[in-house]
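G., before I forget:
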Amino acid sequence: MAARRNIPVGLLFILCSLTFLIATNTHETTSTSEHPDKAVNLPEKSTETGGQTTEQPAVEERQWEPTEFQEETVNDAAAEKQDATPPETTTTSAGAHPKDDFQEELVIRPLQSGDVYASFQFRTLWETDFMKGNKVSHYRLFPKSLGQVISKFSVRELHISFTQGYWRTMQWGQPFMPSPPGAELWVWFQDSVTDVDGTWKELTNVLSGIFCASLNFIDSTNTVQPSASFKPLGIGNVTDHRFLRYATLPREIVCTENLTPWKKLLPCGSKAGLAVLMKSEKLFHSSFHSQAVHIRPVCQDSECTTTSWELRQTLNVVFDLHTSGQGKREWSLFKMFSRTLTEACPLASSSKIYIDITDNPQGEQFELTPATHLLSQAVVLGDRRTFSVYDLTEANTFGSMRSLNLKTRPKSGGYIHYQPSKDRVRPHLLEMLVQLPPNSVTEVTVQFERALLKWTEYTPDPNHGFYVGSSVISALVPSMVAMDTNNTKERPLFSSFFPCKEESSYFVRIYTEPLLVNLPTPDFSMPYNVICLTCTVVAVGYGSLYNLLTRSFQIEEPNPRLAKRIANVIRRLRGVPPLA
Amino acid sequence: MRGQLAALSIAAVVIIIGVPLWWRTTETYRAWLPVSQIQELANLELQLSADVEVVFARGTVTPEQQKKIPLTLSQDDEHVVDEDTSLRYRYETRYRTATIMEEDALNQPTAAEADLSLHMLSESPCGSLVVYVVPESTSLLPEDVEVYIGQRRTALLRIGTQMRVGRTLDQLLDHLEPRIKKLLQLMSFSHTDITAALSDRVRLSPGNKESIADSMRAFKSSPGYEITFSLLNPDPKSHRLHWDIEGAVQTFIQPLLTKLEPLANFSIDSQILYYAMLGVNPRFDNSHNAYTLNADSLAHVINPVEARLGSNAASSNPVLNFLLYVPDANHSPLYIQDRKKQQVPSNAFHSPRWGGIMVYNVNSFYGPDVAFPVDININMAKVMGVFLAQLRLLLGVQSSTPPPGFLVAPCGSSGLADWELDRLMWSRSVENIATATTTITSLAQLLDQIGNIVINDNIAQQVSSAVTSLQLAVAELESGNLGFALQYSKEAILASERAFFDPSLLHLLYFPDDQKFAIYIPLFLPMCVPILLSLLKIASEVRQRRRDKQTKTD
């Protein structure tokens, strides 16, 4: 697809992790036992001991007691050390410079197909240092659970996405944040990590607990280390791909249980701000749903004197208004999300809604009610687009607007890196650097053989098929307009995710559909029948051999015929002498 | 004859080669475990030894008596807790008279200063106590105080009035003994503490409610704890809260934790949760012009908040939660009422083995013309005082009320006196030993009952190291080395838990013998029946032949 685009010079990395012949989707039960929540898998100690059992009632019969305390205990300590306690009063708002910052943003773009694309972005910036074993333990806006993960596992960058549905690039254009169907996780570790594989294993287990997803099924058979693609997106030019791990789980199904922990990471939760719109019934009743968490270190200013950590939570939804709606190409926030906005998150330094009106400069295709005079131009994906902006932090936005309505008025290769798989140890990895000529079709084909797996390696539903993860195309595409290379400048969040190195090109990542491969499937009720059958065959063979060896054969006097014997019995009854 | 030989040789091949081969290939690997030593541990006889030094100051004994003072005296106190567990307390008492330096120290104007200078003179080791017997006329203690317990491991004991005249040494010692014993129970270990610590092993008879509540309140012994401070701000639109948690932790909590370091590792973190509501709507009380929370409804307060607190992602240690709740502008002030409908002065409450909550009212800072949002700096000294008290309770530092006539020195900047730490260490060592023995014995029992479980070498190694550490811990307790005993008991608990929760123990748990034989029967039955039949036939023929021979000889 990408090849058909009119790209004069394009560099493409094709990463294709092929796992046809190996058991990607077979999950040993042992892997779950390393789950952090270990108590689930464990037998209870024998009840006689009562050690484990007394704890439960203790929790249920939890007694709340008022706390009594003697003031003097603290006052001693306070008197000694606490001279400089700030007085317990209201202070002027010009206090200390806050070290963390939260922004939220929603972009709505009516697509040509009539669908509506809504993209939420929440960004928490925190001026702190997780590197070099620095112990960070006091959290304000940054979620504690993720902070603990970063400092415990020495993570440099973490990107995780959960996607349901497939992004139709031909109809919808490019997404702001590309992601493959299922779950994708890629992590750059800091170079202080010695046992990267062990850390990766533990990290996936912990993340699966945090996000309620089956990320614990990531093991060496579906983890690769791409050498050319997936460069770090934050600061730092690490090229040693020993510290990179990439894995996808195309089978992963995304649902509300993944959304709830994701929402919990937001400072305002779903109580205020744009996250109010996230009602799971509506979000999952859509053509495409993708939620992601990206953590990376970024520069605070253009000279990069101070670094800060960026947590970006994104949620992309494509609503199909034709099937759900009343046939009219008309939508509103309420119709899409069945909620409306009432306030911005009070913790957010900026809270904005952008509506893409590039295709509608004069308002001949649709009109926005209420109208806004705030316009903004942003360069996104090599294109300069115009947006209407609603700033939720300004009070007058809500003066007129309770719900935002939008109505429409009917009118080739240079570098190849191939890592063959090892059965049940690691998957295939094929990376190609291709230069694509314009107006051409490039095909990459891989031959494979279907093989039988071990019978314990089949999934509970083997006839469904086995997934092969999406191929990934990362490209630097020449831009029509000059890109902004200053990454620290204030820009809308949706246009600032991929860092730009030069003005003339922009970075695009495209994921293909995952493949579903049917493997030969045996009849699983057979093993016991086979055991019985073979045993019977063995027993028959053995029995005849045994007879042959142990019996001695000799000619025997023939027995009197049956008829004769019966006749003799009758004759005896009659008192006639029997036949000879 | 040839047939018989063939049948015999086939039977021999099957028995000599086939059966061992089958046995060997289907056997589960079970490493050797020190079963006999585990059996010994199941029968636990703990002996706790405490060293006590009784120092007579000038003016308490006459010079003749001084010569007759026995050097050492040991007292044993034996308790049988249940059929498998027995306890023995041994107090090794040494008597001596005070040195000149100590006399100088005792001449300080106040008890606290004397305590400090005595500590400067010599530092007594962990688990031991020094009791200074001071004359009745001493100026160190106030009139009505008989015993002064210092911040370290020393106590001052005033000699009674009836001992002033006409006393013999035996009378004096008899007079001192019960009081020293009472002092020891307060400062090192008491039978109730130790039996409470054994609760993992011994099912306690339903005693009085108070003591059970006390023992249930504290967290169970663990090699580490996570302490989480959470600031709940349900109304970020009206309140912009600032708390200097880093400084407060450094000032108030860290000294205590540094002191507790031998017991466990602590890690502290904090977070701010916005829009975190309590689970109960507080009721407006007209008489106080304030909102109130009843003691009965406190149990429901936490549930919605707890979902957002989150567990620690990076460790599996127990978490102590301390929540500071700032009620929203529409529901303030908020006060907690106890069961007698009285306002709780600290406005805080705690839950056993979970943590504590403090409600922090900010409505007094609104001022006459309030413009929301209000910036509020939280007074951390006030908050941390409450949290520190709760932390002490939850960690099991019992502030049991001293008997009349006892004066306990206020704990200093560290928030914990040395003898309190010792007391905690005694009960934690016993608790660890009890837990580890229970774990190890139940593991041995489990492995013994289910023969299918594979016992890998690493499990056997963990079990052995747990058993060794346990034996060492018991021995160290016996010889009175409290620090080492605690160290070994911690190692024992770690090793035993690791062995018990090893995932490899689960593999073949559900593969019972009857199913295994159901699979083998189609092979075994047709093979064994001919062999057995022909063996029977051979046996009967041999018997027949012998009988024939006998009749022939007859």
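The mean pLDDT of chain B is 80. Residues 42-195+402-424 of chain B form one domain.

More on Monday.
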